[in-house]
From TrEMBL:
Protein's recorded name: Acyl-CoA desaturase
Domain Fatty acid desaturase: 71-337
PANTHER family found in the cross-reference section: ACYL-COA DELTA-9-DESATURASE, DESB (PTHR19353:SF84), FATTY ACID DESATURASE 2 (PTHR19353)
Domain of life: Bacteria
Pfam families: FA_desaturase
GO CC annotations on file: membrane
Coiled coil: none
InterPro entries hit by this protein: FA_desaturase_dom, Fatty_acid_desaturase
Amino acid sequence: MAILTETTEGPLVLSVDQVEEIGRELDALRARITADLGDRDREYIYQVIKAQRGFEIAGRGLLYLGFLPPFWLAGVAALSVSKILDNMEIGHNVMHGQWDWMREPTLNSRVFEWDTVCPSDQWRHSHNYMHHTYTNILGMDRDIGYGILRVDEAQSWNVLRLGNPFYAFLLMVAFEWGVMGHDLEVENIIRGKKSWRQVKTLLEGQWRKAGRQVLKDYVVFPALTGPLFVSTLAANFTANIVRNLWTFSIIFCGHFPIGVQTFTQEECAEETQGQWYVRQMLGSANITGSKLFHIMSGNLSHQIEHHLFPDLPANRYPEIAPEVKALCEKHGLPYNTGRFARQIGSVWAKLFKLALPPFLVKNSAPAGVIVMRRGQASEVGV
């Protein structure tokens, strides 16, 4: 299995024993954290839920005074925070099963629904299964470009790619709708790889969920404010846009900045647990920031740790991040992290660069890490 990463001296060779050691150390880290879960974790998620509900109540209340611009802006701000917390630190993480160990019915990953148009069951399939199983494997992980963007040099170029930054902007603004349509796999529908029966079932679920969401945000709550209907509708729309912009930015910072790797299906064939761990570390990136920043990002600012342990409570990611970083340094693996401005800047730079024909831009494919198999000669090559 060959895994690509950037080194200063060229390709790095990881022996089978090194990979197995990485696997054992990460397994032990996971077991230690799992055994330690308890009251402080339970208290943490309850506090986040309480804060989210408080911001929503405050936002709804302020909009009854929405005819005054300061109250309207405050209402939008409170609703935006509420929707971000619901989407990131609660919804995303609950549906990963991070809180199933609590046996709390409202935090059950199999029945939880979030405040967005995408049905939770479809998201769990496209995200929990497809993305987290096949992370950054070309042709298998549809999160590589979401079916519309060129985010890696291994993806083919055609004239439609010139719109890459524009498509990314549209996706950013309408991100909840893009997430909703992700499991449809529109490109496979066009190619005839998906049956109408499959598509019909997905569309029915989307119609039900999106219909309820639109009714709530753009009819019921605006109507409750009477003559301020239009003002409240605009506030709800604005809060949804703010949530979309933030969610898109955090997710793209964790998956597409410069230095994050993709892999071929051949490279990942018959993958061991240790090799899977290495792929997750090389295929993700972190964002540095304050404790509040991490909470507002759903701790997806610790995307590397999330990809290693997607079902561990996210409040533990800051705790284990130094150990994961030390493990990477021990074996010469990169630990891609940086400030938000740096990571999002590199994402947009890549989106603009990969919009251009390959002959106009310099190939920046990194050098390689070769993960040796037993009985394989120690021969470096990519």
